[in-house]
Specification:
This protein is α+β, with helices and mostly antiparallel strands. It has 3 helices and 6 strands; from the N terminus they run αβααβββββ. The chain has a 3-stranded antiparallel beta sheet. Strands 3-4-5 form a 3-stranded antiparallel beta sheet, with no helix packed on it. Helix 1 packs across helix 2. The chain binds zinc ion (ZN). The site of zinc ion has 9 residues, from loops.
């Protein structure tokens, strides 16, 4: 049986993983190391990629670099941490205000209007 660690425990494991390796080239590699840290607390602990990504993005001690791909989908919330997005507007040639991109209030993720994350890398910023 798997058990789910608390947010605090995951945050601690992320910190431990970042302190050891300083940066990770992908979400999968970060999660692998975080899982190793968690298993020191409890061998039956597990954590999903999504939860690792969200908590890493919101940690305050990690800079997330995002490679993006083109999309036609509308995004409602931050695709990195699930936080609230603020619209970046610009004036069009016709004098209309148009949305050209987004910035996330909680993790500072920034993108153009037709972009979605493709790959992540994580860097210790402390
Ligand atoms: Zn975000």
């Amino acid at each position: 049986m798997y058990k789910l660690p608390t947010e605090e425990e995951i945050r601690g494991a992320i910190y431990g993983a970042m302190k050891k390796k300083k940066s990770f080239p992908s979400l999968t590699s970060l999660r692998e190391e975080v899982l190793k840290e968690l298993k020191k607390l409890d061998a039956s602990y597990t954590v999903s990629l999504k939860r690792t990504r969200i908590l890493a993005a919101r940690s305050g001690f990690i800079r997330v670099e995002v490679k993006k791909k083109h999309t036609n989908k509308k995004i409602e919330n931050c695709p990195v941490c699930g936080g609230k997005l603020e619209k970046i507007r610009n004036m069009s040639l016709l004098g209309e205000k148009i949305v050209i991109g987004y910035v996330c209030k909680s993790c500072r993720y920034k993108s153009k209007v037709n972009e979605l994350p493709l790959r992540y890398s994580f860097h210790f910023s402390r």
